[in-house]
């Protein structure tokens, strides 16, 4: 009895674990290690295939090696092809995307909310807006060039000199329009869907309690439809970033990662092409991750109503 009482007084953390628990703990550790390794398996396989294909072809123009591309990515401030550094071109491209994307959000979200709430506006504009939705952004290029030519934000704002002119002159209206078209429809359709998904009982209850139209929009429709709108904004940003390369191939472009890729191809610098493509992917994935984190933090309550 004394020995058993002494054993029971030993702290649990210092007692030897039973064989079954040690086995379960080892299995859990292996499971955690396997889940942690899953995200890196595909990149490692991809790099292995790339390295083998580059070694097999032995042609830097067809497929450069990992080391040459990695050197460019490791030195983003290095000047490339007398066109500035990779980092500076990415910054110019990102500025263009932000301008076109912000314009799309400013127009698409209010219009989508109005069409989602007012049946009359929906019937008036839905069929008309639907005519333009299937048109790819690239199909607008000839028309956009005829409309805007090489005009830029500097021309639109009347800036004619100075450092500000150099920045604004890179914001060609044709490029911004292509990016705007790419981002507009995902945000627009998600806004309509989000408002139409709001339970009618919430709106009716607020009206019975004396809420005005402004209260309906600000306190019911916008908060309830916000998850759908933010998801549309996330998709729209990805589409806008994809439209960037085609936008920067338009006449008048002298900078940007898309223009850098196009020019590098013409001079046979495939390593610069791949480095630019990887940069586009990394920046796009980073922006998408930021939106996903915002959704997880601000709209975690969605899980409770499903």
Q: Could you tell me the strand content as a percent range?
A: under 5%
The helix tally amounts to: 14
Supply Rg.
Answer: 27 Å
Instruction: Enter the CATH topology name.
Output: MetI-like fold
Can you describe this structure?
Helix content is 76%, strand content 0%. It is mainly α and 306 residues long. The protein has a single domain, classed as Orthogonal Bundle (MetI-like fold). It is flat. The termini are far apart.
Q: Would you kindly provide a brief summary of this structure?
A:
This protein is an all-alpha fold. The protein is built from 14 helices and no strands. The protein has a single domain (about 80-295), classed as Orthogonal Bundle (MetI-like fold).
List keywords for this structure.
14 helices; flat; MetI-like fold; mainly alpha; disordered N terminus; 306 residues
Write the layout of secondary structure elements.
Elements (H helix, E strand, L loop, with lengths): L1 H7 L10 H39 L8 H9 L11 H32 L1 H14 L8 H8 L4 H5 L5 H7 L3 H24 L3 H9 L4 H35 L9 H10 L3 H29 L3 H4 L1
